[in-house]
Amino acid sequence: MEHFLFSLLVVIVILVFITYLYLFLKHKLNFTGENLPPGKIGYPIIGESLEFLSAGWKGHPERFIFDRTAKYSTQVFKTSVFGEPAAFFCGAGCNKFLFSNENKLVAVWWPSSVDKVFPSSTQTSSQVEARKMRKMLPNFLKAEALMRYIGIMDTIAQRQFAADWDNKKEVLVFPLAKRYTFLLAAKLFVSVEDPERIRKLEDRFEILSSGIISMPIDLPGTPFNRAVKASSFIRKVLVEIIKQRKVDLAEGNASATQDILSHMLLNVDDDGQYMKELDIANKILGLLIGGQETASAACTFIVKYLAELPHVYEKVYNEQMEIAESKAHGELLTWDDLQKMKYSWNVACEVMRLAPPVQGAFREALTDFVFDGFSIPKGWKVYY
């Protein structure tokens, strides 16, 4: 018996060694070629994913970038993240090159973990679904539509200021900004205002947003596993809302223009097909996450910079008070009022330049190309 166990142990060790050797050689082969950018590729599968993610967990995501651009003295470096060979492009010149070659040299790419969190009933990838969404959104976000939302935004803002900001010596801005943007998104996207339903969704969204871009280890207790479970719960709630909306539209109890859910239900795609309920749920789920995280980060940094720059705060305050004093008691903001907020608008734009709400995003090389003397092979992932 002992001899059998020893032999089994030896076989297991040999198999593990062979597997690791295979993964190591495959990993090295992904980075063969002439004139590749400088950089470190890390271990097989893991690469530098842990370093990339941990920089964000520690609150300084830019350090992963800055440390390597300083080390290699270049705006382009190679690495391996999420099991993929990748080139990181840093700076305005790199961004301009990538954006001007969208769908020519590069296309949108997301880690495979994202497809697990947002499964499509049509079995298409997150890249294809993202392109569909970009075609659909302009109609919902055009100026005439945005004009209708200003009063809603003002009402929710006043309500939240009264509940969470007034008469407080100190407030934590980011959690409150996230709550405001979530309430706003829930109202504008799916017309949900019920406090209990919003609370349940909000708790799950917190879990989902913290685990969506993590190591894709789907084991009980891991951030990714919790994110998958949270997305499943949210999706079920959204499907219930979608089913009820279909009934309301059929009975004339809902408007075709009241929110993005009605827009999705009543419009067809390029093939003349209506979207399935699960796909609508996934798209709204993605919009809720993207809208909440980016808008709340922008709001938080605006407050931060206003607190640090009293002369800028004074000008913003005076502009806002001038508009407020021109309004009757209880009168909500209008599109015309927003046009008067020129200085405030410039402050918001400058804040987003200094502290972008999104650190970056991935693309995939559609073909071999050369940038700044470095070769980027087809299939490599590019992070701007």
Automatic annotation (TrEMBL):
Q: Which GO terms describe its biological process?
A: sterol metabolic process
Q: Chief localization class?
A: membrane
What is the required cofactor set for this protein? heme
Transmembrane regions listed in the UniProt entry:
6-25
**Cell compartments where the protein resides:** Membrane
* The name this protein goes by in its record: Cytochrome P
- UniProt keyword Cell inner membrane present: no
Q: What is the lineage of its organism?
A: Eukaryota, Viridiplantae, Streptophyta, Embryophyta, Tracheophyta
Tell me which UniProt keywords the record has, alphabetically: Iron, Membrane, Metal-binding, Oxidoreductase, Transmembrane, Transmembrane helix
Organism the protein comes from: Parasponia andersonii (Sponia andersonii)
